[in-house]
């Protein structure tokens, strides 16, 4: 265990220009020589090896509630302090940061309804992807992020939830607004926009829940209303909050999955040739994108039992931050981990977390990624980055990796 500048969460964000340019320049030596490192400023242990990260994430006894952490777990307590205290926690904190029994009570019916929707939505998602492609003018360079990677996930989740065409424009704006909540360094003005969007979305969903109770439709909200009537113990406030969480958790990360994947295929034409020659490789492609250049850097857990990771003792109530990006390129688990190979046989990546908090949106993200990347390059097989020598326009959002823009030509 060590305490130094590299072993700090701040150094593992795009606020560090070295990390922003190439995270693995920082993560590789940390994983090799300091696999469990204490960051006293954040009050957490930084874990970078696959075996340790997997052990933490698979442990269903860990907590996501920052209030259960030791006093010096500053980051965990800072996040917890942002929640109101005059209402039940389950009505102000989504299932992402809830523990059982509330976590299981809310997740089970929502997962049941959501997964059933994903199983039947392929045709609708294909229509969403095709509509975005049809709107692109291939005769001139365009920003792939704005034209394609951003609208597809928003319109996809809107279709599943049951957002009508009249409300779609507002829904897109609110979706982008609530995504500001992922930025811990947002400005006061951005915080105002965040709260406005969050309030608008909450009111919208509460109204839709009421409507679906009177006139059921063929959508996720109606499915959840039916489960409520059948005895599912989730109230309207909790349902609206977790619909917003589905939206926030899935939109930006899937945008980045598609954008990062498109960039990797354009930079690796041999892998693109494999995909176009065998479209059945699309699922493997998405898994390799998630491993090689996944959208999310970290996830945190509060230990509820004493544990030892790579020889370092960690006590109950201490916070552990698993660095997913480092674990996903651990050479102890992956052969030739620094190569992007879409048909390689790899161990499962950790980009969706694990245990009881395994990403609920994983099936939809995978399907969207497969359809979007395959259809994009089937439509534009000669798609190229306009300036391959320019530095990629990576966002500066901490703990996420995606592109602000990606200028391409067909």
Q: Which key phrases capture this entry?
A:
single chain; 410 residues; alpha+beta; four-stranded mixed beta sheet; 16 helices; 50% helix; Cyt_P450
CATH class: Mainly Alpha
What portion of residues belong to β-strands?
5-15%
Question: What is the CATH topology classification name?
Answer: Cytochrome p450
Regions with pLDDT < 50 over 5+ consecutive residues? 1-5
- Whole-number radius of gyration? 21 Å
Structural class: alpha+beta
Main beta-sheet strand count, sense and barrel state: 4 strands, mixed
Q: Can you give the helix content as a percent range?
A: 40-55%
Distance between the termini: 50 Å
Name of the CATH superfamily: Cytochrome P450
Mean pLDDT: 94
N to C succession of SSEs: HHEEHHHHEHHHHHHHHEEEEHHEEEE
Structural overview:
The protein is of the alpha+beta class and 410 residues long. The chain has a single domain (10-409), classed as Cytochrome p450, CATH 1.10.630.10. Helices cover 50% and strands 9% of the residues. The protein has helices at 17-21, 23-33, 50-58, 74-81, 102-119, 122-134, 144-149, 151-161, 165-178, 188-214, 220-229, 236-267, 269-277, 282-293, 324-327, 362-379; strands at 36-39, 44-47, 142-143, 298-302, 307-309, 312-314, 319-323, 384-385, 393-394, 403-405, 407-409. The strands form four sheets. The protein has a four-stranded mixed sheet with strand order 1-2-7-4. Strands 3-11-8 form a three-stranded antiparallel sheet. Helix 6 runs antiparallel to helix 8 (151-161), helix 8 runs antiparallel to helix 12 (236-267) and helix 9 packs antiparallel against helix 10 (188-214). The protein starts with 16 loop residues before the first helix and ends with a strand. 45% of the residues are buried.
